[in-house]
Design a protein that fits this description.
By secondary structure, the chain is α/β, with parallel strands linked by helices. It has two domains: about 105-350, 3-Layer(aba) Sandwich (Aspartate Aminotransferase, domain 2); about 360-490, Aspartate Aminotransferase, domain 1, CATH 3.90.1150. About 35% of the residues lie in helices and about 15% in strands. The protein has a seven-stranded mixed β-sheet with strand order 3-11-10-9-8-4-5, sandwiched between helices. Strands 12-13-15-14 form a four-stranded antiparallel β-sheet, with helices on one face. Helix 5 crosses helix 12, helix 8 (about 190-195) runs parallel beside helix 10 and helix 14 (about 420-435) crosses helix 15 (about 475-490). The longest helix has 30 residues, at about 345-370. The relative contact order is 0.14. The structure holds pyridoxal-5'-phosphate. Pyridoxal-5'-phosphate binds near residues 139, 166, 219, 249 and 301. Belongs to the class-I pyridoxal-phosphate-dependent aminotransferase family.
Length: about 500
């Protein structure tokens, strides 16, 4: 086994992962690569001449240096927008001939596709010594990480409002959540430290050994962790020996840095250093996706981790999905390496241009939000520094029916206000008005163990998540409805 980062972290692997045996047939299959010209009578690999496909051609946006803003050009010029083509045929000369691409391959993905994502990771994060494993996108990637590390009865840590599609995933494996406070700057390191240093293993079981977090444009709150917070969280991970699952689909959609407020369009702008880039121990599992920068239907992404975790991920994949479909892998390989492809420089031009486009949408949405919704004083929002979401705060205390309860009213130690009920009512009114928003309650970390009662989360559910990723022509009408619904809700007789 090649040596990885210096710290042995295999004690984090779950019993399920330790018990999982490598797929014995895959082990024999790998031997076909032991020396050149090995003849295999071993595997039931369909012969490539029987694939009913001999050519795949991709036509993609041109990202040449002569095009100042490739996304804008692509979006607005319709069929006449300049494009680039790359082709894969049975025997090549493409980077990844169909003959090999369409065959069964390894759990880490096709070696060329793995090289493509490794080069992207090295370019943006330069991790010390890590390995990549292809996935079917971040949902698949994160769910696999949970499975790799989670023992029934374990506690995992997550932002108190989190991406519930994924925090739901490990519940059926017996994982329990502990929620960590977040503020406008994202996860609060001091709260994380409080939870971990007060943990009583005799009463509460094993101390949480996994943190799931979304560091850029957090879903749902839109906040981004500063470098200082990232360093503090990483130091806590070393001190309390936990693994960080860095789910970062919005990494490329950074509009301002929380550290120095440099505008992303300025030449000085640098992507914020990821947890992976700081990971000297191998305790970060970084999960990347093509969903938000290419297309979600591609269902392709990758995990970057230490070698032992990579090996365990491959074993899991070898006995389940085998590997992602070939077409996505061909696409990214050709996109980066083919003559006529984008190369890393072109990819970088695309993601920076995409970021400018989303920033434009964000600014338009935020302006409209201030005009149509926030002006009334019934709601407000912080400017999201990354991602696709605005976290709208409803100023419920201005509502005529808003109530606070004193201890002794039978409500202590639970919620001290009627926030939950009022927000449910407001949500229904939005639907009646014709606009769908995401209530904060959807993002509550499910069944999270209570770590404090002083500031119950039920009293902080006065938020809706709004997205600015959708069609621009519906943004203003939707916000007009929202503004009107709020006015009626707050001024009811
Ligand atoms: C934080 C977060 N993780 C994961 C995903 C899912 O990504 P994928 O499409 O790659 O599965 C999303 C999508 O909205 C997300 O916001």
């Amino acid at each position: 086994m090649p040596s990885s980062t210096s710290v042995d972290l295999t004690h984090h692997l779950s019993t399920e992962t330790r018990l999982r045996k490598p797929n014995p047939m895959k082990a024999i299959w790998r031997l076909t690569r032991r020396k050149p010209k090995m003849i295999s009578l071993a595997n039931g690999d369909p012969h490539f001449s029987l694939y009913p496909i001999r050519r795949v051609e991709f036509e993609v946006a041109s990202v040449g240096e002569d095009i100042e803003n490739p996304v804008q050009t692509w979006r607005t010029s319709g069929p006449s927008a300049p494009s680039q083509r790359f082709v894969s045929t049975t025997d090549g000369p493409s980077s990844l001939p169909l003959k090999s691409a369409l065959q069964y391959s390894a759990g880490a993905g096709l070696p060329d596709a793995q090289r493509a994502v490794t080069e992207l990771t090295n370019h943006y994060h330069s991790p010390p010594d890590h390995h990549t494993t292809l996935t079917l996108g971040n949902s698949d990637g994160v769910a696999k990480c949970f499975r790799l590390l989670g023992e029934p009865g374990d506690h995992f840590l997550a932002d108190e409002f989190s991406f519930s599609s994924l925090t739901n995933a490990p519940l059926s494996h017996g994982i329990k959540w502990v929620s960590v406070k977040i503020d406008q700057g994202g996860l609060v390191p001091e709260d994380l430290e409080r939870i971990l240093s007060n943990w009583n293993e005799e009463e509460q079981g094993r101390r949480p050994h996994v943190l799931y977090t979304v560091p850029c444009g957090q879903n749902p709150t839109g906040c981004t962790l500063s470098v200082e917070r990232r360093k503090k969280i990483y130091a806590l991970a070393q001190r309390f020996d936990f693994i960080i699952i860095e789910d970062d689909p919005y990494y490329y959609l950074q509009y301002e840095s929380p550290d120095d407020n440099v505008d992303c369009t300025s030449k000085d702008f640098k992507f914020i250093p990821s947890f992976l880039s700081m990971d000297v121990d191998g305790r970060v599992m970084r999960v990347d996706s093509f969903s938000k920068i290419m297309a979600p239907g591609m269902r392709l992404g990758w995990i970057t981790s230490n070698f032992a975790f990579h090996d365990a991920l491959v074993t899991l994949t070898d006995s389940s999905t085998h590997h992602p479909h070939a077409f996505g892998q061909i696409f990214i390989t050709e996109m980066l390496f083919a003559e006529g492809g984008w190369s890393i420089a072109g990819f970088d031009r695309w993601v920076r241009s995409l970021r400018d486009e989303y920033k434009r949408r964000r600014d338009f949405f935020v302006d409209s939000f201030y005009n149509e919704v926030a002006r009334s004083g019934y709601a407000s929002a912080e400017l999201p520094e990354a991602g696709m979401f605005l976290w709208m705060k409803v100023h419920l205390q201005k509502h005529p029916r808003f109530r606070t309860y004193k201890n002794g009213d039978g409500n202590a130690p639970g919620p001290k206000t009627n926030t939950k009920e009022l927000m449910e009512e407001l949500f229904e009114r939005c639907l009646d008005g014709g606009v769908v928003v995401m209530p904060a309650s959807v993002f509550l970390v499910p069944e999270a163990a209570k770590t404090t009662d002083e500031d119950p989360i039920e009293d902080r559910l006065n938020f809706f998540r709004l997205t600015f990723a959708g069609p621009e022509d519906t943004m203003v009408p939707a916000l007009e409805i929202l503004g009107q619904v709020l006015k009626e809700f707050f001024t009811e007789k």
